[in-house]
Design a protein that fits this description.
alpha/beta; binds S-adenosylmethionine; SAM-dependent_MTases_sf; methyltransferase; transferase; S-adenosyl-L-methionine; Protein-lysine methyltransferase METTL21D
Length: 226
């Protein structure tokens, strides 16, 4: 279903602009009411800007590590991370629950002029449900702020185990929260995940110099071999 910003039922939208290194601007529509996926979370900005850092992208030549890579984003929300990756040449599938599909499709449409070399498609993927449609294994799985919900820990880890092949790198960005159930959810998630994956944390100096924060972490996760 194609939804224009004006058509979205009863809720108003507001736009978050994210400037890319090449000076172009990503315009991300968010809704003022709705579930958590309707707005851009800080971890998504940190991850988007990390993808653009010069270790991966040469702003002069336009060459990019992500070019032609197959990427799958889980819990994409507004789709900002996936749209950034596609604007850097990746072939991306952004996924989230059914309710988020109109917003994902709206943001893909509104940023189409930034997608000259890469491609992007929005699809429904609910953690813990059948994900064989998303195989073969992608080169990269992207996740921003997806570790926050107690009931999702087991299904999310199971989904990652199915989707990540021996060569897949999961780039997981999350905000470390100290309130309520968050520390316990995070602990449980990593206890389970690290049984099958090894993690390497990206130090602050390899992140975007402006868009980083001590409480937002970026991990590269790969399946343990053998
Ligand atoms: C905190 S939001 C983060 C959204 C976006 N990645 C960002 O950082 O701006 C978490 C996202 O996970 C999605 N999500 C939650 N439970 C899910 C599930 N069981 N299957 C798929 N997506 C889910 C939500 O719909 C939401 O878009």
């Amino acid at each position: 279903m194609a939804v224009s910003p004006e058509q979205h039922s009863s809720t108003s939208h507001f736009v978050r602009e994210i400037e890319k290194t090449d000076g172009s601007v990503l315009k991300v529509y968010q809704y003022s009411t709705g579930d958590v996926g309707c707005v851009v979370w800080d971890a998504a900005i940190v991850l988007s800007k990390y993808l653009e850092t010069d270790q991966f992208c040469n702003s002069r030549s336009g060459a990019s590590t992500w070019s032609s890579k197959h990427m799958l984003e889980l819990g994409a929300g507004t789709g900002v991370v996936g749209i950034m990756a596609a604007s850097l040449g990746a072939n991306v599938t952004v996924t989230d629950l059914e309710d988020l599909q109109p917003l994902l499709k709206l943001n893909i449409r509104e940023n189409r002029e930034l997608l000259s070399t890469g491609s992007i498609t929005a699809k429904v993927l609910k953690w813990g449900e059948t994900v064989t449609d998303f195989l073969p294994h992608p080169d990269y799985i992207l996740m921003a702020d997806c570790i926050y919900y107690e009931q999702s820990v087991v299904p999310l880890v199971e989904t990652l185990k199915i989707l990540a092949g021996p060569k897949t790198c999961v780039i997981c960005c999350y905000e470390q929260r100290t309130m309520g159930v968050n520390p316990e959810v995070e602990k449980r998630f990593f206890e389970l995940l690290l049984q099958d994956f090894e993690a390497e944390e990206v130090p602050a100096e390899r992140q975007d110099p402006e868009f980083n924060s001590p409480d937002i972490h970026i991990l590269h996760l790969r399946r343990r071999q053998g």
